[in-house]
Amino acid sequence: MGKKSSQDLAARVLKSERRALAKAITLVESVRSDERAEAEALIDALLPHTGHAVRVGLSGAPGVGKSTFIEAFGLYLTGLGHKVAVLAVDPSSARSGGSILGDKTRMNRLARDANAFIRPSPAGGTLGGVARRTREALLIVEAAGFDVVLVETVGVGQSETAVADMVDMFALLLAPGGGDDLQGIKRGIMELADLVVVNKADGDLEPAARRAAADYTAAMHLMRAKYKNWQAPVVLASALEEQGMENVWRAVQDFIASLQQTGERDQRRVTQAKTWMREEIEAGLVQALHAREDIRALTEQLEQEVVRGTLSPASAARRVLAQFESSP
Ligand code: GDP
């Protein structure tokens, strides 16, 4: 594919053609270096048309009801006339072979909605790689006119931070029972949350959900505020019964309005763009290092000396880096 065809693809994405959208995302997910150049040309062409969506990250432990919630919330939003895209970051899919959102039985109704677009997590690679591809997919769906983008991630490990770094708002989904009590939630993840949704507030679980919401409200008040005028609220919902969606959406809109008023939303996006660029530089450097045959040979050779104890790891590393810097 040449420059012209990436321009053509960009034009079709802007017209929100579904096949073009899928093709564009497949292109940015590619790890082939020739396709990488195409992907960058595509993103550059789309960039002026991005930035208009509300970007919301959503995390929660397996079983709290993420897919049920995203389906209910997504349908609620398309019912209001919004266009909703759902993306995912799941670095574990590299190991398990499967991926969140990959299961066709999930979110059937939302998947059939003409105003919704669901894309599973790109499979394989490091968290950094998966995050980069999801960031680019986010720009693509925005350019295609989706005005709400939900980025799902599983509530384990480092992926929450990666998702929080690419969205305007980070929402944490919790459920009563299931051992998912206050002690079980990592403080770091609570600190990332701009909104807490306590799901499963229905039937027999409702009293427990109310108690959990009160506990989380108290806990969130102890957190250091991230923004001038925003205290992360705790909202009750039942994804199963499709209840409480309007409260979640109101919280999202209030948050965005608050940050826009103080200029903090633009600041957050500026910081994210700078961080992204620096990460790309570092990832590129590592890639260039690994691509050099002479560097690999020297590394293996010096490794032997390190193993034998005749050279310190730091000196060995310095010699490898010196060689990297000195010759092409
Ligand atoms: P995920 O692993 O976080 O994506 O969770 P799922 O959406 O697959 O839901 C896990 C289980 O919780 C399923 O059996 C759902 O039917 C159930 N569930 C999800 N939302 C609710 C809810 O609001 N109320 C109740 N009672 N069950 C729910």
Helix content: 55-70%
CATH homologous superfamily caption of the largest domain: P-loop containing nucleotide triphosphate hydrolases
Which structural category do the helix and sheet elements fall into?
alpha/beta
CATH names the topology of the largest domain as: Rossmann fold
In DSSP terms, counting alpha (H) and pi (I) runs of 4 or more, how many helices?
14
CATH class of the largest domain: Alpha Beta
Give the radius of gyration: 22 Å
Main sheet characteristics: 7 strands, parallel
Quaternary: single chain
What fraction of the residues are assigned to beta strands by DSSP?
Answer: 5-15%
Number of domains: 3
Q: Order the strands across the largest sheet as they lie in space.
A: 3-2-4-1-5-6-7
> Any idea what the shape is?
globular
Overview of the molecule:
This protein is α/β, with parallel strands linked by helices. It has 3 domains: 1-49, Single alpha-helices involved in coiled-coils or other helix-helix interfaces (Up-down Bundle); 50-262, P-loop containing nucleotide triphosphate hydrolases (Rossmann fold); 276-326, no CATH class. It is 55% helix and 11% strand. It has 14 helices and 7 strands. The protein has helices spanning 3-14, 18-29, 33-46, 66-79, 93-96, 108-112, 127-143, 159-164, 187-192, 206-221, 245-262, 264-291, 293-308, 313-326, and strands at 54-60, 84-89, 116-118, 148-154, 169-174, 195-198, 234-236. The chain has a 7-stranded parallel sheet, with helices on both faces. β6, α10 and β7 form a beta-alpha-beta unit. α1 (3-14) crosses α2, α2 (18-29) packs antiparallel against α7 (127-143) and α13 (293-308) packs antiparallel against α14 (313-326). The longest helix has 28 residues, at 264-291. The model has no long low-confidence stretch (mean pLDDT 89). The structure holds guanosine-5'-diphosphate (GDP). Residues 60, 62-68, 199-200, 202-203, 205, 238-240 line the site of guanosine-5'-diphosphate (GDP).
